[in-house]
Amino acid sequence: MSKEYVDMSPEEFRKYGYQLIDWIADYFEKIEDYPVLSQIKPGDLKSKLPQSPPQQSEKMEDVLRDVDKLIMPAMTHWNHPKFMAYFNSSGSAPGVLGELLASAFNINGMVWKSSPASTELEEAVMDWLRQMIGLPENFWGIIYDGGSASTIHGIAMAREAIEGTEFRTKGMSGREDTKRLRIYQTEHSHSSVEKGALILGIGLEGVRKIPVDENYRMIPSELKKAIQEDRENGWLPFCVVGTIGTTSSTAIDPIPEIAEICKEEKLWLHVDAAHGGSAAILPEMRNILNGCEHADSFYFNPHKWMFTPIDASAFYTKHPDILKRTFSLVAEYLKTEHDTSAKNHMDYGMQLGRRFRSLKLWFIIRYFGVEGLQKIIREHLRLAKLVESWVKESDSFELLAPVNMSTICMRAVPQKLKAEEEINEFNEKLLERINKGGEYFLTHTKLNGKFTIRIVISGLRTTEKHVKGVWEHIVNCKKEQLGMQ
Ligand code: PLP
Questions:
Q1: Contact of 270 with 241, CB cutoff 8 Å
Q2: SS3 category, 154
Q3: What is the pLDDT of residues 295-332, one digit of tens each?
Q4: pLDDT at position 331
Q5: Is residue 238 within 8 Å of residue 423, measured between CB atoms?
Q6: In which order are the strands placed within the sheet that holds 407-412?
């Protein structure tokens, strides 16, 4: 530790900083040398860490050495090209540099005055992103930490927008003068909608799941029926959540029809395009956002499919006034002379303290350019079509959902197995075998009760070689699994 400086000395910072950047450059270059899935068992890392903090200064050399020795074996590598699980969140090098600078600045963007750079860059970058996905000009954007936060903000706004209830001042509990609130989604909507209902006092019973069609999309006529039925039974319908790219199968809810119903019934429309929204930067995919111009709130996560290190969720609304009404509470010490001439981001969400998240997005968009980002996402879509064609050509596998984006939902269908339960069990074991050893990482879902293996191709470093590799691996694992039957 430096004797002269309270913090690390500039010389030391340079030395270890360069060392760490070299380490990260090697990590990205040689990432395939590591298993994508950590091979440790629960508790392994913790058992190797001291139970108490060091009382005396330790050498940075020792800290950095322990990254290799202790942390790396415990890492599941989301940046790995063979990570095709969940929805990828792969970070790009310009994004890492943006994060580095953001933590060096260490600003708190709560009010304009506390960080004009953060406030204004965020507004500018959010407008770039809006243009990139083709949302109309009347949408204003702000960055939240994740998709769950974005959805919870959308639902909170929807609740605030209900006329005559005064929830902001009177709250929801112990009242006999308001009806119970109802929100609409499908069983394929993300769990963050129900989490929002939990947090906002709506409760799980306040969430109604609308039936879906054979492609897992909300059926608008069922939505209409449910709203009418609920009104007759004393509920107060207030919000519909539509999804563009559901978590299980990337289904796209029919937003134009849902928007029409929301207009007729005077309900708030929140659109969750967490993963799928990024695909709309391609002109040929823009149509996935059809109808979103009618949404009251909308979001997508650049930290999912726009190579932005976690976290960054881009939330848009046509009603920043309602957002402000929902969340603004200005303590005396936060009042500034600019409150009428500039936006204070603390007024537009749950967080007071805010990181400089727009910096990494600014780095990424400028480094790749819109065309560069389009090229990467277009390639993912092409690779997904390739896998789709292999599944279709094979008589040992079947697709379980349309390939709308770059996620393939499929399962093995061994000819000797007929009962659904047996096929499910076979696929569950097959997935375990695929992930064993940690070379590839895939995850599952259930579609119509069928155990479904998902291949998600949206990692920055995933190429045709990896996609061919995973298919070969799946086919081989299936053969081995059959041999075990
Ligand atoms: N919405 C959808 C459709 C998702 O797939 C996910 C996560 O995968 C989320 C919301 C939640 O996003 P986050 O993890 O950023 O909270």
A1: yes
A2: helix
A3: 999 999 999 999 999 999 999 999 999 999 999 998 88
A4: 84
A5: no
A6: 397-399, 407-412, 450-456, 443-447
What confidence score (pLDDT) does residue 338 get? Answer: 87
Q: How far is the CA of 425 from the centre of ligand 1 (A)?
A: 27
How many Å separate Cα 449 from the centre of its chain? 25
Closest Cα to atom 9 of ligand 1: 147
Q: End-to-end alpha-carbon separation of the chain, Å?
A: 61
Nearest in space to 468 (alpha carbons), one of 394, 392, 390: 390
Q: What is the pTM of this model?
A: 0.97
What's the pLDDT score for residue 11? 95
Across the strands, what pairs with 210? 186
Alpha-helix runs per DSSP H in 171-314: 191-199, 220-232, 255-265, 302-305
∠253-254-258 over CA atoms, to 5°?
A: 105
378, burial (CB in 10 Å: exposed 0-12, middle 13-18, buried 19+):
middle
- Tell me if residue 268 falls in helix, strand or coil: strand
Q: Distance from the CA of 150 to the center of ligand 1, in angstroms?
A: 9
Q: Read off the pLDDT of residues 208-240 as tens digits, 9 standing for 90 and up.
A: 999 999 999 999 999 999 999 999 999 999 999
Residues lower than pLDDT 50 in the chain: none
Among the atoms of ligand 1, which is closest to the Cα of residue 149? 16
Say what the pLDDT of residue 364 is: 98
Mutate to test the pocket of ligand 1, among 145, 148, 278, 313 (most ligand atoms within 8 A of CB): 148
Give the count of beta carbons closer than 10 Å to the beta carbon of residue 368.
19
As a whole number of angstroms, the distance between CA 207 and CA 250 comes to 21
Number of H helices, E strands in the chain: 15, 11
